Amino acid sequence: MDAITIIAVGAFVLVALVTLAVAFVLFRLLPGVRADRLAPSGAHGGGAPDSILRWEGERAAGWRAMVERVGAAVTPRDALLLGRYRQRLILAGFQDPRAVAVFLGSKVVLGIAAASAYSIYGTMIQRALPNLLPLSIVLGGVGFFLPDVWLRLRARTRRREMTNALPDVLDLMMVCVEAGMGFDAAVARITEPSTTRPNPLHEEMHRMHLEIRAGRPREEALRALADRVGTEELKSVVTAFIQSERLGTPLGKTLRVQAEASRVRRRHRAETRAQLAPLMMLFPTILFLLPSFMMVAMAPSLLRIFELLQLATTMQK
Length: 317
Known about the structure:
Layout: H1 3-29, H2 63-74, H3 79-91, H4 99-125, H5 132-178, H6 183-190, H7 200-213, H8 218-229, H9 232-247, H10 251-316
Helix pairs in contact: 2-4, 4-5, 5-6, 5-10, 6-7, 7-8, 8-9, 9-10
């Protein structure tokens, strides 16, 4: 086989492996293209769906079981520190109590894997790599704190989605209440999975509704909702609901006022981001476009100057 044939076969195998890897990641991570989505409707079982207030009873399997065991070994015994980890995970949407062990285990496993990657690379190429210990420590630190960065970004994205969805939810609740529904019936109506798009705010309100149905006091469930969401805007709305229930004021009027205020705040946030857009585009323009413009504008003059200098040097000789 000549070199061209070997390169062609290698390229084909490489493209096939990359395609299979991408397909595997899509089928495992994205719910819209999972394989069970193509299964018949009766293949998933005919029982009622599990409640979101009930955790899975079976133990995790595979890599998650290993990470969970490592996390359980390093989970702090301090209740205050454990509560902080738990609150951070709740703000990111992880309600399962075992999420703390999985999160801490992932920090330890990623730290060890990243710290060992440089030495493993040196073993594979059979060379003594320079600065092995410092680079291993740096890579281990990056791998250890990488889950914290991911969790912070996830919590920020989730908080932004809930803040943007709040005006629409309040409008729907106002329509339901003014149509004659009570507070619990309005919450149940707007959080039905068949009538709403998947949104973290609808999930949290559905959890609050199930907690009230399970016997939790409404005021306590509302405050727990505000703590899980973690936004000042929703906390003010929850405070208005509680005060309206205590004082006996009409809930529809309270919802109308809060919905209007929430829409105004969302419009102000959009206007602020629109005003910041030119400033944010200034740095990429200076960094990427301005050098190209300068090169295009000055290149002919510079070439002419170089030609004249070369000609003058030739004439002097």
